[in-house]
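Project standup — Tuesday

K.O.: blocked on the structure for the chain from last sprint. Re-posting the sequence here as requested.
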Amino acid sequence: MPLVVGILCGDAFPHVLPTWIYPASLLLLVFILFCYRYCRWLYGVGVYLFLFGIGFHLMSRQLEQTDYSFSNIPSVYRVRIQEEPEMKERSILCRVSLLEELRRDTVITNSGNNLFLLYFPKDSTADALRGGDELLIHTCLSPPANNGNPDEFDYARYLKRRGGSGTAYVAAGHWEVVGHDSRRTLCRVALGYREKIVSLYHNLSIRDDELAVLSALTVGDKDELGDDIIETYSVAGASHVLALSGLHIGFLYALFWLILSPLWKRWERLKPVLLLFIILFLWGFAFLTGLSSSVVRSVIMFSLLALAGLQPEKPITLNTLAATAFLMLLYHPAWLFDVGFQLSFSAVAAILIFQPKLYALWKVKNRPLRYVWGLTTISIAAQLGTAPLVILYFSRFSTHFLLTNLWVIPMVSLILYSAVFLLMLTPFPFLQHAFASVVEALVRVQNAVLQWIEQLPAASVDGIWTDVWEVLLFYFFLAWAYNGIIKRTARNACAALFALLLLVSYHSVSTFSNAPRRSIAFYNVKGCPVVHCMTDDRHSWLACADSLPDVSHLRHTLSPYWNRLHLDAPQLITGDYSAESLSVRNQIVSYANKRICFLHDARWQHKTSSRPISIDYLYISRGYKGRLPELTSLFSIKRVVLDPSLSAYYQDRIINDCIRLGISYLSLSEKGSIRILL
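H.V.: unblocked you, prediction finished:
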């Protein structure tokens, strides 16, 4: 816990410690060892402070390595592509290391530790880029930044934690390949083998959703997954099986433990050798999956658990799990913020704590029924541990999780074991082609059943809002409730009830303070200029400037904020509209005695009026090419809102017009979103 608190503080207040702190820490360590025999509480305080300092230093140092001095002007850089380019919807993403910056008078050499995300337009030349290519690019590197929308994903912090220094867009014709690094790193070799396995699936005539799910389950390649199959797994509560991580490594670990444990029970001296074999196999599997961070993290976890199996008593305990997390965070402190890390450890911890108690509630003699009951108690325990985190990050709770897990866990284990056997048949092509149809049929049946579960009534509860403090209070209540069950005393019962009271009180205050209120909002989302008109009764409208807005991107960005305000799904308006409290006519929105005029084309140019219309907010977005003074005879403008889709040059022109005319303005690209209470 002190290590975790230190990592959290190092992330929130990154600061490189002065050099004198290191000899002081050494003296503190000597003092701690000295105090152990004479003052136990002082020894404990010293250990906590020492571990807190380690966590703070490790996290601060990791964030410091991403620092880079940005010039804010376009320059020429020499970069090397670290991984294979990734196809996005509208661009090609390349993760590169910066080697040199070429200025007019000098060349600034970089160590290559600074990693950047470069986006290239989709064309035939960019499609030819490969990992290891060295490029000269002309662009403006910028630090990672958020758009300033409420409750949006903190992309800047996410990129920093993953070692990224910044991003840039490289226009067509502003780059060229100048070389290629032929050295193949371990990760590149691993990715190459992963591509060979996916190609093997193609050659075995596995297609469509079956190919996508099989590639995700076995080698972690999710490029083929479509939106429909992802939504099916999400609603059914089986998304965790598509993310190759602890569940899949656990299946393989359990398989080899089951096969090899009879051998070391008969010949005990073989146990270290066989456990080493399990560890080597897990790392070999991680290599075939491209050494992705989630798989490596899970393999480290199960490797340490395998080593813990050398002790004669029960190998997997909470102490073993805590020691595993401690060593992993010492190696890579930013893993603490990884959703997969949190879900893996919370699930395993909940299973270790709650599953034995749940399993003991019903003594089952029938062997098949006992297996089903064991799987049920494991699912309930894991759900207790992970449900708050799933709701926090995904705002969804799958109500049929028991039914899903009773089906998907045996099926995924069967598919994984069948896929391993399929790869072992590579020297026998005829048998491999025959068995490939069996594997494809297993995946098809799994998908069909999950699609049926998705269609069941009330399959999931969506739009749930919670925050970090509410999640912590839930775990606090869970801990006291468990303590009250183990030690049935009045004091423990009162403590559990008090924890429940804190949780309910905080939730009630949060719900009341975030109740919907009549207001309008402008958002910093490119490609979708809208004004959001909200009422007091959870209903709202999205009045769009464009007849074909990119609403999916807007919903993805703002859905957490709308969930916090407990709003229903907003009604989309793309043309003229009239309701009791809202009117949209000729791109002018009238709501609660406020007028918002969209300006995105030339419809108001070269027009005059003897009586100007009073406009509270003039929303200018991409498509309007005129100047502000030519509109003063048409509108009496109180404030101008500039959409982020406007170019920097044109925004400066409009801002200068506003200053000259004495009109207040708001640039969404600078200020982020804004909400005006009415």
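K.O.: great, moving the ticket to review. The longest helix spans residues 367-394. The two ends are 46 Å apart (CA to CA).
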